[in-house]
């Protein structure tokens, strides 16, 4: 298991998609906003963290796992003593480590450029949120990779999932003033609960932070089950 984690970490650190979507693009956006002195809401700045995690952990992982499915990697896994649970755990852990590291860098850049004035406790509270969010979106990527029959369909599927999650959250909207159906969607939207957790961490509101963490952990467990079920055809 540790060999899989080590190999995956080494491979992912050389991933061009990681460098562009999760590092260069968010940093360029942040420096651009700062340079042009644009008035950007805190929710939008915090949303950059969630989108960076989603682009890497979900979309990049979905295409990687889809490629492995097509090559029969998981068929070969059945005849080895290495269980699917261990494989899922190893890949999820490696993606989570990288995504959390990138997100912490982005958070520190945001704090420096836009003067978040975060307390030490706030930074500590951010870490579990980033960890759970990264693991959650990685597992979602596993599940999405089982749906399409080609890469074009996979691209459409990830976009159809991503757009409602982002648009029905407080990244760009004031949820309190949004239509009722958007408010209902926000209650089951992991992006929105990450946003609420981020705000609670900034304000060191421990009770609301704990509630956000609890709901995100429940979502994580549900996505773990869905990701495992998505491989049922490989075990027949």
What does this structure look like?
There is one protein chain. The chain has 236 residues and is mainly alpha-helical. It has one domain (2-235). It contains 10 helices and no strands. The mean pLDDT is 88.
Can I get a quick summary?
The chain has 236 residues and is an all-alpha fold. The chain contains 10 helices and no strands. InterPro entries: ABC-2_transporter (IPR052902), ABC2_TM (IPR013525), ABC2_TM_bact-type (IPR047817).
Distinctive features:
Transport permease protein; 78% helix; membrane; single chain; mainly alpha; globular; 236 residues; ABC-2_transporter
Topology:
Layout: H1 2-13, H2 16-35, H3 42-70, H4 73-77, H5 84-114, H6 120-144, H7 151-167, H8 180-187, H9 190-202, H10 206-229
Helix pairs in contact: 1-5, 2-3, 2-5, 3-5, 3-6, 3-7, 3-9, 5-6, 6-9, 6-10, 9-10
* Unreliably modeled segments: none
Biggest sheet, in brief? Answer: none
Number of helices, counting only DSSP H or I runs of 4 residues or more = 10
Task: Give the mean pLDDT.
Answer: 88
Task: Report strand %.
Answer: under 5%
In which range does the helix fraction lie? over 70%
Question: What is the oligomer described by this structure?
Answer: single chain
Shape: globular
Ends: how far apart? 23 Å
Order of helices and strands: HHHHHHHHHH
Number of strands: 0
How many separate domains? 1
The helix/strand class is: mainly alpha
- Please give the radius of gyration in angstroms: 18 Å
């Amino acid at each position: 298991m540790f060999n899989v984690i080590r190999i995956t970490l080494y491979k992912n650190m050389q991933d061009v998609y990681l460098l562009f979507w999760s590092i260069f693009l968010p940093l360029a956006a942040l420096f651009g906003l700062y340079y042009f002195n644009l008035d950007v809401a805190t929710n939008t700045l915090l949303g950059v963290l969630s989108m960076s995690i989603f682009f890497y952990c979900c979309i990049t992982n979905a295409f990687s796992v889809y490629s492995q499915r097509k090559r029969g990697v998981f068929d070969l896994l059945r005849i080895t003593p290495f269980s699917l649970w261990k494989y899922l755990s190893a890949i999820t852990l490696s993606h989570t480590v990288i995504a959390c590291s990138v997100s912490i860098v982005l958070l520190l850049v945001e704090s420096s450029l836009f003067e978040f004035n975060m307390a030490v406790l706030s930074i500590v509270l951010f870490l579990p949120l980033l960890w759970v969010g990264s693991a959650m979106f990685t597992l979602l990527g596993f599940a999405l990779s089982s749906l399409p029959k080609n890469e074009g369909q996979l691209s459409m599927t990830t976009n159809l999932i991503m757009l409602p999650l982002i648009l029905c959250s407080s990244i760009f909207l004031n949820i309190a003033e949004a239509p009722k159906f958007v408010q209902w969607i926000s209650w089951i939207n992991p992006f929105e609960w990450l946003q609420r957790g981020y705000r609670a961490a900034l304000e060191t509101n421990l009770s609301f932070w704990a509630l956000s963490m609890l709901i995100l952990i429940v979502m994580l467990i549900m996505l773990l089950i869905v990701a495992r079920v998505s491989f049922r055809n490989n075990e027949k």
